[in-house]
């Protein structure tokens, strides 16, 4: 008898689960705004060289320019000696010419915060509970996100973005844990896929808000203020009963289970501490032996799985953020590009679900990576003036990387055994954070050679596609519970 079977007696996916999952998923509508905010805060503003205060344009120069009587390409150029004049109506920082790499540095620093948050808040949630850390993360993002709008300098803004990244990571990892630990095994895949659409719709919301506000400070505040509301209602959330029992707080776990049963209209007065412990005997026994990240690479089968998944997670995130973090390069309105990039996630996720069902996990994962690499490479050879074709290919690439994300989340959970699944997910997703940090930094390479970033992104996807081919297939295969199960099965 397992804890999942106990959840089924509480009405499997009843009124409580619907409310719980919906309320935890709602912030996802604005988490996309946090991840992609840099496109609308640090875009290159309209600018031109400043003229000296006492400068007047001679008549003969006016005639020269308007008549176009000279070959402009042969004229000598020089840097703006008197600085630049910028239009700050939309974008924040004057990051042009030699300062252009600092634009991507903001995103790298933010993703560094996401990585740091995954490490810090992941450990804190195991110690203090998922609910407590989730509540704190909402408050941290609300306060520091709004404070970022008051940043007087570039450095101060980067500090706030780093801390916001930490909070975003705390919301994601604890929100996911709190959702799945109250849902029976059978419903997890469907619920996980459906709730991922909150992030997809969030990308569309970001485009609408950015177009409507056209002011970076207002946009920064609007995407962060709602987290005060999320913080207010998050006190209603029920702490994971699994976590409570494993941390010797069974009385509280029993109280939460009775509350869930009452909300679902299925009171279970016969549920006692003894019954609860019998349902969780397997989890309690597995908790006796402490497993660490070293166990992910200690044995042959686990080592193969971990190395291949590290490559897949890194390349997927690397290529994804490489495509979505520089919308201005397409020569199309960044608001239109954000809508298109957000909308393409809808068919891509549905396609991923179909592929997972009929092709299996391994072929789906490898195909998504190879196709995204093919599209990225193809765009290198498209002339800059063919913007429509370049945009279409970029959307296809983004769609395939989104599909790759959908596949790898499910695939990873099926490959790692129950006793170390959470540690495994955290370990390989760290590679995704590393990839998202490296992606904006690689965009700086276009100063050396314009096609170089695309070559790097596509090359990483190809390499990861080959690694995916060495992963075992898990379609219709029973989930492993122990490391020995993995070694015997694969």
Automatic annotation (TrEMBL):
Gene3D superfamilies: MFS general substrate transporter like domains. One of its GO terms (molecular function) is transmembrane transporter activity. The keyword Membrane applies. It is found in: Basal cell membrane. This is Solute carrier family 22 member 6. The keyword Transcription regulation does not apply. The gene is oatx. The chain crosses the membrane at residues 105-124, 133-153, 159-178, 190-213, 219-238, 305-323, 335-359, 366-382, 451-471. It comes from Takifugu rubripes.
